Amino acid sequence: MKNTFYIFLIGFLLCSCGSSQRTKSLERNNLVKIENGLYERDFEIKREDKTKAVTQIGFENRSTSFSKKRAFFQAYGGWDSVIYLDGDSHPILVWNAVKLIDESEDLFTIYADGIEDYSLTLGSLMVFSRTGEDALENKALREEIVTKTKRLICDSTQNEAFYDVYWLEVKSNAK
Fold it and tell me: If both were cysteines, with which of 21, 111, 142, 144 could 126 make a disulfide (CB 3.0 to 4.6 Å apart)?
């Protein structure tokens, strides 16, 4: 079941989205502000005749949408894979088997993305349990994940290693 869901998710992200869908995906009108600087939205994954809603959390940042990606890079090392949506030059970074909650042995898969425009700068993430379930759907778990992510962001620093690897990835995908 887990593998089926991941294949479903990755297949959708790779095959089904155009750049206009991506831009719309993080527009302010699709987001619900749940606290100062934190947004949430249901992200519908559609593939053939199946639809699955997953939770996407957006962290507002005044300086850069890279802060979440950089924080996860500093905490967990290089990402395991990348996903490029059609027409996008910046990837969604994916970390697999991450021990995200200190007090738990559970492992998670993290999808980190970001968007910047004239009115909003967000770093967003989707988190899945090892069984492929939406980890942000569970309110208590979501609070732990948000708290941990905020701490990682606060602890992260400007990191040349992250930017070197990230821009190498982006340039290698440029057409």
Answer: 111
Which amino acid is present at 58? G
Give the per-residue pLDDT at 41.
Answer: 82
Which residue stretches of 26-159 are H helix? 67-76, 139-155
In this prediction, residue 98 carries a pLDDT of: 95
Q: What share of the chain has pLDDT > 90, as a percent? A: 38
Q: Which residue has the tokens 């069984």?
A: 131
* CA–CA dist 42, 45 (Å, integer): 9
pLDDT class for 94, splitting at 50, 70, 90?
A: very high
Compute how many other C-beta atoms are within 10 angstroms of the C-beta atom of residue 49: 5
Domain around 153: 2-173
E runs forming strands in 12-162: 32-35, 38-47, 50-60, 81-83, 92-98, 108-116, 121-129
pLDDT tens for 131-156 read 989 999 999 999 999 999 999 988 88
- Nearby residues of 67 by Cβ (< 8 Å), 6 or more positions away: 59, 61, 114, 123, 153, 156
Helix then strand then coil, % of the chain, to nearest 5: 40, 30, 30
